[in-house]
Amino acid sequence: MSDPKDLINKALNHSRNGEFDLAIENYKKAAKITPDDESIYCSLGAVYSKKAEYDQAIRNYKKAIDLNPDNFKAHTAIGSAYIKNKKYDQALKHLNKSLSINPNYAKTYYNLGNAYSKQGEYDLAIDSYKKALLLSPKSSKISYRLGLVYKFKGDYERSAYYLNKSLSVNPNDDKAKKALKLVEDARNKMKQFDSGAKIFLK
Length: 202
Prior knowledge:
Blueprint: H1 4-16, H2 20-33, H3 38-50, H4 54-67, H5 72-84, H6 88-101, H7 106-118, H8 122-135, H9 140-152, H10 156-169, H11 174-201
Helix pairs in contact: 1-2, 2-3, 3-4, 3-5, 4-5, 5-6, 5-7, 6-7, 7-8, 8-9, 9-10, 9-11, 10-11
């Protein structure tokens, strides 16, 4: 019989190399040997998420949660997968469960922000992203998301602040650069409009 640790290590290497089907194959072999190891199902869920096969990811995260209902990382991960499937109520249920177990996990607040943002609940999204940023202040993606939400709200000053903050950590992020350019263009148009309005008001 194969050693499950060897199979898991093989799966990890395959996953890092983008060989997701081989990673899944090895994780499944390991799960047959140690079916009560919740971490294997979490790893399977993560690989399926990388393949954008979110239904399969959810099934595996559920197995992990069945084995350990207090696995806050599994609750956060399944919440993220539900967001990808646009099942926001289910996502919020698991994300809030994760917070009830561990209120200091930045990824949970980040995913809460994503769930609220997708539903147009921008103030709740901002609150969640800011909590995530307090726990992970060097995260460029959290600052980027904050910048986007402020852009959606039309608050270009704060949007530019957080997009610049994101780029200070990850200066090669093309998405953040494009978003910042759009925000700066919008700010300039507003300034031109304000200047024109003042002329007419004189």
